[in-house]
Amino acid sequence: MVIIGAGYAGVMAANRIAGDQRMQGSVSVTVLNPVADFVEKIRLHEVAAGSRESAFVPMRSLLHERVVMVEGTASRVDPERRRVHLTGDPMPLEYDLLLYAVGSTHEQSNVPTGAFALTSHDDADRLRARLFRLDPGSVISVVGAGLTGIEVAAEIAEQHPRLAVRLLSRGRIAEHLSEPGRRAITQRLSALRVEMMENTDVQRCDTSSIQRSDGTSLGSACTVWTVGLSAPSLARDSGLPTDSRGRLLVDESLRCLRYPDIFGAGDAIRAPEAVAGHLRMSCATALPLGAHAADSILARLDGRTPVPLSAGYMLTCISLGRRSGLVQAVRADDRPRGVILKGRLAGMTKAQVCRMTLSWIRSELRRSGSYSWPKGPQPAEAR
């Protein structure tokens, strides 16, 4: 068994499979990852702003002892010969079953020259270095007002009050939240002196400015690009079935449509609308998808029929600096309810949820099958 990717989905799946008592001695699990340590991607905005030194966690503290860790990058999957080829290594990894869990990234072509992305630890380190070199009063432009953009803008504004932070959104800021939730977000950003520009389409940028679709330019000493997440090109480059964003196409049990020995989990897959139309790229999605993919693989190994995915949401938690946050109650299909929690207590709740992500992974390490998650919406409710 080979797992490509040791993010939230990959590590969760590895622990669930390796720790299953029925499979001891009959299945080996190898995880392939470009870096030796686990990266808490939900902490990268903190690293970039300077409120956290590192988002690295020792991988062995999270991985089951029976999981073999291989540091390397997959260059191509050969589904016919069941091999994973590695960059710079002539010896491929052979597999009987494969889990594709490579996560999400920004395609380099989608990030304008001069902008900073925030999908890897290297990205966060580069942005952090840039922020600390800027002169007082320099303008930071954060393009994209989804969850990542809001958290980045708030974190930088709180940690670097000497800088001017601007948040630009193609639509309304936090438009996916309830009106009370959206209002709480904008009030907190205002308190942090973040300039908010809604209904603004940024076309491109360079190292000193951004250009809007109406032809006007704005000065920007540093531009952070948080829009346009996509899947890495590995599945497409390997000839596996993908959608227009490069995500591996899987069925309702997370098995690849064309190759039954390949399963998928996390941000880099697309499951049918009936079970996954409401799901978004996030840690809150990656963990249950990793666990469900593991269950489907275990069912396959045990001669059982895998069951369809059912995964949903209960809360959306947003950090607004180290001293505040927002918790938005949501339905299983991620539509907002009217209930929110804001301020310091919400910030503490968000911090606790972030800590719990590693706790859930470690609990799965100790007892396979311990992790559970909210069920998805009924088919009629799914978007």
Structure report:
With 383 residues, this protein is α/β, with parallel strands linked by helices. 28% of the residues lie in helices and 25% in strands. The protein has helices spanning 8-18, 44-49, 121-133, 147-159, 179-191, 234-237, 273-276, 283-301, 344-366; strands at residues 2-4, 29-33, 38-39, 56-57, 67-71, 74-78, 83-86, 89-94, 98-100, 105-106, 115-116, 139-143, 164-168, 195-197, 202-205, 209-212, 217-219, 222-225, 229-230, 248-249, 262-264, 269-270, 315-319, 325-330, 336-343. Strands 5-2-1-9-21 form a five-stranded parallel β-sheet, covered by helices on one side. Strand 16 and strand 17 form a beta hairpin. The longest helix is centred in the C-terminal third of the chain and has 23 residues, at 344-366. The protein starts with a strand and ends in a 17-residue tail after the last helix. The mean pLDDT is 95.
Output the keywords.
383 residues, alpha/beta, 5-stranded parallel beta sheet, 25 strands
Explain briefly what this protein structure is.
The chain is of the alpha/beta class and 383 residues long.
DSSP, total strands: 25
Structural class: alpha/beta
Which segments are poorly predicted (pLDDT under 50) over 5 or more consecutive residues?
Answer: none
Instruction: Please describe the biggest sheet, giving its number of strands, its sense, and whether it closes into a barrel.
Output: 5 strands, parallel
Number of H/I helices: 9
Q: How much helicity do the residues have?
A: 25-40%
Strand order of the largest sheet: 5-2-1-9-21
Give the percentage of residues in beta strands.
Answer: 15-25%
What characteristic shape results from the CA principal axes? globular
Question: What Rg, in angstroms, do the CA atoms define?
Answer: 21 Å
Average of the residue pLDDT scores: 95
Distance between the termini: 34 Å
